[in-house]
Amino acid sequence: MQTLSLVWGVLAFAGMVVGFLPCLGAINWLNIPFAALGLVLSIVALVSARGANNAPSVAGLVCCGVAIVVGVIRLTLGGGIL
């Protein structure tokens, strides 16, 4: 489950980077819910893996959190479309 949260976080982060490109900011409308699901998955993986190596879960949590925050900022600055 931890590996899945890490992969999900990396994919959400990659979607955020694509959303930065000019005229592709609307991708954030899809990427923000995707990253939110990854955030929930990372929290579940972090809570369920007590005593184990939590680094993949934390990395997925951070990547998804950053993707959400930056995506919202990008949508706000672009007027929600661009």
Tell me what the structure shows:
By secondary structure, this protein is mainly alpha-helical. The chain has a domain of 46 residues. 77% of the residues lie in helices and 0% in strands. Helix 1 packs antiparallel against helix 2, helix 1 packs parallel to helix 3 and helix 2 packs antiparallel against helix 3. The N and C termini lie far apart (34 Å).
Structure in a nutshell:
This protein has helices at 2-20, 28-48, 55-77.
SSE blueprint and pairings:
Layout (H helix, E strand, L loop, with lengths): L1 H19 L7 H21 L6 H23 L5
Helix pairs in contact: 1-2, 1-3, 2-3
| Residue windows where pLDDT falls under 50 for at least 5 positions | none
Q: Structural class of the helices, strands and pairings? A: mainly alpha
The overall pLDDT average reads 90
- Calculate the terminal CA-CA distance, rounded to whole Å: 34 Å
**What would you report as the Rg, rounded to the nearest angstrom?**
13 Å
N to C succession of SSEs: HHH
Helix content: over 70%
Number of helices: 3
Work out the strand percent: under 5%
Query: Looking at the structure, what is the overall shape?
Result: elongated
Q: Mind summarizing the main beta sheet?
A: none
Number of strands: 0
